[in-house]
UniProtKB/TrEMBL annotation:
Belongs to the bacterial solute-binding protein 2 family. It comes from the Bacteria. InterPro entries: Bact_Solute-Bind_Prot2, Peripla_BP_I, SBP_2_dom. It is found in: Cell envelope. Residues 1-29 form the signal peptide. Residues 56-292 form the Periplasmic binding protein domain. Keywords: Signal. Its main location: other. This is Sugar ABC transporter substrate-binding protein. The lineage of its organism: Bacteria, Bacillati, Actinomycetota, Actinomycetes, Pseudonocardiales. Pfam families: Peripla_BP_4.
Length: 330
């Protein structure tokens, strides 16, 4: 290339550079550049949410969870499908089926987190948002769930133990009704922390109420120093009351969760108090949260669980709360 063309090229480059500099310093281009946030995609069609729990058939507690989820669906225009199975392997298959059917969101209770982990992680990989409820709070984020909705079982157990302590009790029997349920173990461990005296546990089977009552009766009859019994389910509470009366034990009962029988027992003085985790919220709120996530990319909780309890119900509050138990929302 000749020197003349090189000089011409440098002159053109100089003119272009000057023009760019002028443009950068004057006129509209000198104003700060702003970028509008990208618009969220507009959802199409109704949202379908699969609620899959470990509840057993006929369990009044899980009926209230189901009521909450279905009411949220009605209120928000969400299609809610509720299924449950107390066997962890069968529950995992229900999750797998929901994923295969391309559900829009999953709500899962994790009484046995390790058994459900592969299924929940597969759902997350498939792009399905998951919210865990009730049990498995400490594994929820690790498995990829958006948040956890429920009662912190350790805190609830501590409150129950402390209440018994304040009532002057010395030896507590904590009745576990589902083997392998981490939440129930956490409740009893929490009760040990909150209670000043001795705490022992008893394993029963909620699916065999007669045997559960027999085991509780045997425990309080064998050890007359037991003066407090904490059940972790409202149906087991009724069995505990019958067992104690049958052997004229001095033990008094408190329980987790409410039903109409527990309300009546609190009024009659047969049950001292109930630890209410307000499970209607555990059904209702996740459906609402998944709708917000799909429609507005909202994530509730800020990385922390959304707590629904504990709320202690005793004679001073049972009349007010009892009316909601009757309609199936507490």
């Amino acid at each position: 290339m000749s020197h003349r063309w090189k000089r011409a090229g440098r002159s053109v480059a100089s003119l272009l550079a000057a023009g760019l500099l002028l443009t950068a310093c004057t006129g509209p281009a000198a104003e700060p550049k702003t970028t509008a946030p990208a618009a969220a995609p507009t959802p199409s069609g109704p949202l379908k949410v699969s609620v899959i729990t470990h509840g057993t058939a006929g369990d009044a507690f899980w009926n209230v969870v189901k009521n909450g989820a279905e009411q949220a669906g009605k209120d928000l225009g969400v299609q809610v499908e509720y299924t449950s199975d107390g066997d962890p392997g069968a529950q995992a298959k229900l999750i797998d089926n929901a994923v295969a059917q391309q559900t829009g969101g999953l709500v899962v209770s994790m009484a046995n987190p390790e058994a459900l982990r592969p299924s929940i992680e597969a759902a997350v990989r498939a792009g399905i948002p998951v919210i865990t409820i009730n049990s498995g709070e400490d594994k929820s984020a690790a498995y990829g769930a958006l948040t956890h909705v429920g009662q912190n079982e350790s805190i609830a157990g501590q409150e129950a133990g402390k209440k018994f302590k304040d009532l002057g009790k010395h030896k507590l029997l904590c009745v576990i009704h589902e083997a392998g349920n981490v939440g129930q173990a956490q409740r009893c461990d929490g009760a040990k922390t909150g209670f000043a005296g001795t705490v022992q546990t008893l394993q029963v089977d909620i699916s065999n109420p007669t045997d559960a009552e027999s085991r509780i009766r045997g425990a309080v009859q064998t050890d007359s120093s037991i003066d407090a019994v904490l059940t972790l389910n409202s149906q087991v509470a009724a069995r505990a009351v019958s067992a104690i009366k049958a052997v004229n034990s001095k033990a008094q009962v408190a329980t987790f969760d409410l039903n109409s029988d527990v309300v009546a027992a609190i009024k009659a003085g047969d049950v001292l108090f109930a630890v209410d985790q307000q499970q209607y919220e555990q059904g209702y709120l996740p459906v609402q949260f998944l709708k917000l996530y799909r429609d507005n990319a909202n994530v509730v909780g800020g990385g922390k669980p959304v707590l629904t309890g504990p709320d202690l119900v005793d004679k001073s509050t049972v009349d007010k709360v009892g009316q909601y138990v009757q309609r199936g929302t507490r």
